Amino acid sequence: MLFQETTRNSISGSVLAMIEHPQQFAMLRSHPALIPSAVEELIRWISPVTRVMRTCAQDSVLGSRPIRASQKVVIWNASVNRDEDVFPAADRLDLARTPNHHLGFGYGEHFCLGAHLARLELRVFLEEWMARDIEVEPALAVERVASNFAAGIKRMPIRISTP
Fold first, then answer.
1. How does pLDDT run across 69-78, given as a tens digit for each residue?
2. Domain tally, the chain
C-alpha cells in the first residue's frame, strides 16, 4: 500500500509543483537533460513520506540532545529536506539542484527498497510529459490527504490543453 501511495503522491505532487513554479516547468521543458536532477529535487520538495519514527537502540546524543535507549525519535522529512545547512535556498524549488542529498528515501539500513523503481517511474513520467506540447492548469482547489505519514493529494482537478 505504501508503495502505491508514495508513487501516486510523487507524481501528483510533481504536477502541482510544475503548476506552482511555471519558470521551473519551462526550464525543464527547454532542457530535458535536467530530468534526473529534477527527479531528485521533486522528491526532496514533495517529501512523499512525511515522517518516520525509530526507537533508539542505545543511549545516544543527537545534536546536543541526549536520547535514552528505547525512546522514540521522529524524523520529519519535510524539515530535514529543507535544512538550510544542507540545501542552499532550501525553500526554493530548483530542478537543476546538484548535489541533492535529500532523505526522501530514508538513509542507511532503512533506505527505501523501491527507490530505484520510484526514480524510474518519476523520470519516465517527466520524460513523457515534457515530450508533449501540453499545458496543465488547476481546474479547482487542491485537496490534500489528512495524514501525518504520507504527504499526498486527495483531489486535484486539472485542465489539460495544447497551446
1. 999 999 898 8
2. 1
Sequence-ordered alpha helix ranges (H) in 21-114: 22-30, 35-46, 77-80
pLDDT tens-place string over residues 10-37: 999 999 999 999 999 999 999 999 999 9
- Phi and psi at 155, nearest 5°, equal -150, 130
The answer to whether residue 73 sits within a structural domain is no
Query: Domain containing 116 — which CATH number?
Result: 1.10.630.10
DSSP-H helix ranges across the chain: 2-20, 22-30, 35-46, 77-80, 115-130
Here the cell at position 106 is 530514508
- What is the DSSP-derived secondary structure letter of residue 148? S
**Any domain includes 145:** yes
Kind of pairing between the strands at 143-144 and 135-138? unpaired
Report the residue count for the chain: 163
